Amino acid sequence: MADMKTAPAAAIAAAPSPTGTAGAAPSGGRGRIRRHWRLYAAISPFYLLFLCFGLVPAGFSLFLAFQRWDGLGDMEYAGLSQFRYLLADTQFWDAVVNTLEIWAMGTLPMLFIALVSAVMLNSAVRFKGVYRFAYFVPSVTSVVAVAVIFGSIFSTSFGLMNAVLRTVGIGEVAWLNEPWGIKVAVAALMTWQWTGYNAIIFLAGLQTIPTELYEAARVDGAGPVRTFFSVTMPMMRPVILFTVVVSTITGLQSFSESQVLLGRNDGMSTFAGGPEHAGQTVVLYFFQQTFDNNDFGYGAAIAWAIFMMVVVFSLINWRLVNRRERARRPS
Amino acid sequence: MSRTKGAMARGISLHTALIAGVLLSIFPFYLAVVMATRTSSEIFSYPPKLWPGSHFGENVGHLFDNIDFFGSMLNSLIVAGTVTVLVLFFDSLAAFVFAKFDFPGRKLLFGLMMGIFMLPAQLSAIPQFVIMAKLGWIGSLTALIVPAAANAFGIFWMRQYMTGAIHDELMDASRLDGCSFLRQYWHVALPVVRPGLAFLGIFTFMSQWNDYAWPLIALTNPDHVTLQVALSQLNSVHSMTDYGMVMAGALLALIPLLIMFIFAARHFIADLAKGAIR
């Protein structure tokens, strides 16, 4: 659940500042390291685990991307052929487009509604605790259970969406069989699950804005809309950027929503992403190639392509953050 | 007079909008309750039923016939519980070191850890699977527990917490008293960072309980899975036929975590939000 969502929080805020350092007496090289062996031992579990299950595997998967391998037999050097295949692989690019479409359809409305909700929550005096609880609950519930429930809401024959459409006189929509319907369903699920979470983050950001700024804006005769755009928005920029970064990184790697919602037992791969692969995200495609087709080499190439995507989007976000820093600093 | 009336109208429309949001948040849960208490023919009929029925016991009976519900719940408990204990210990120990001691390579190691955050899980998924297959862990809960036993987020979180909460005077005094490193950790650090540990513990337990992608791959024996994987199997096989049963499963899988969250919510939400805006 929120582990992916929160993790980059720390990454962005990370400003390693040595504080309250104790017990450091300068002495020479190796002796110093030996003197601190307890400290190294204490931090070692994380680094050992990372070495065994993070760094070495990541390196190995780079090696694999240049091999043909089914996971059992002998490896066969493939050079760049798998990357060349990837560039021409329409199913891969369709998956990239699907991922971005679902991300845009789910994330943009989500952040907008979350911001509006946060502003409202901030001005509500009573029942704040109840509201916060109710808005937050979707984000701690398991995505599998949520996808099961949304599967029923978007069911063609008995779903609530179609019942509503039928009642108002519009015909039924085969949500989970139509390419765009699939994307609407997946995006709706994401929006439902994460809007409240983001609203709470925004609310926390709003509460750090000093009330004097609002007083000053009122004295200057600014109306509520003007105040929102010249006081609230600039002050909220770091928090908004944080939520954009987090939802971009998690959105690019979305998997469970589509997998559970569309992974029916109908003879197709459970990673296929529904009819015409319309709900197949890049991570689903990675799983399909790797664990259904046992194409470990090509799977590794896809994994590195996903990594590059994440890096590119992180860089774009980082540029945005940096521009803010430069703008803030008086030249 | 008119001013207070305007304020009241604003207040009412504000709360109306907020309550609509609450209803949207809660509604899918309610719908799950409705369906979990209905027979399939009731669910498949039009107009849709919007209030709970009386067939919950029946659906739960079918559920227990079809999947080993308590077995997979026990598996989830074992994984989430063990990982939580390990994470609390390893992360707080490492955080204590980063927060309160200086040693060669400290900045480098900490920076390296923060960089690791960004690596997508898929990057190491294949070799991790191969390594674990060699170790004979695939199909067992070990495959889920060991790689999750320590993580960068928890170390970072606890370090932030400890930096402020453990005063240097306390550290100096305990050292003058001849406290060893481990005694300092146990008797000086841990007692004052309990709230931070509580957050990290709940957070870890919840993420492990809800984890899905890796368990789906690593638990290759369909009879020995976690609750989320069992629920997904149930959904993919029976969602066309016995929806009431599938919903009963979804509902029962949600309840333990919801109960936990209800008790922890106040501090948990505040801590999470604080972490994000820092």
UniProtKB/TrEMBL annotation, chain A:
Bias (Low complexity) ranges: 7-27
Region (Disordered): 1-29
Subcellular location per the Swiss-Prot or TrEMBL entry: Cell membrane
GO CC terms of this entry: plasma membrane
Keywords carried by this UniProt record: Cell membrane, Membrane, Transmembrane, Transmembrane helix, Transport
ABC transmembrane type-1 domain boundaries: 96-317
Record field: transmembrane: 39-66, 102-121, 133-160, 180-204, 296-321
PROSITE patterns xrefs: ABC_TM1 (PS50928)
GO biological process, any: transmembrane transport
Membrane-topology annotation of the record: Multi-pass membrane protein
Source species, domain of life: Bacteria
CDD domains the record matches: TM_PBP2 (cd06261)
Cross-referenced InterPro entries: ABC_transporter_permease (IPR051393), MetI-like (IPR000515), MetI-like_sf (IPR035906)
Family: Belongs to the binding-protein-dependent transport system permease family.
Protein name, entry field: Cytochrome c biogenesis protein
Organism: Streptomyces violaceusniger
TrEMBL record, chain B:
Positions of the ABC transmembrane type-1 domain: 73-264
Primary localization: membrane
Domain of life: Bacteria
Membrane spanning stretches: 12-36, 77-99, 108-131, 137-157, 185-206, 243-265
Claim: Transferase is one of the keywords in the record: no
Membrane protein topology class: Multi-pass membrane protein
UniProt xrefs under Pfam families: BPD_transp_1 (PF00528)
Gene Ontology cellular-component terms listed: plasma membrane
CDD domains in the cross-refs: TM_PBP2
Keywords: Cell membrane, Membrane, Transmembrane, Transmembrane helix, Transport
Record family assignment: Belongs to the binding-protein-dependent transport system permease family.
Name recorded for this polypeptide: Sugar ABC transporter permease
Originating species: Streptomyces violaceusniger
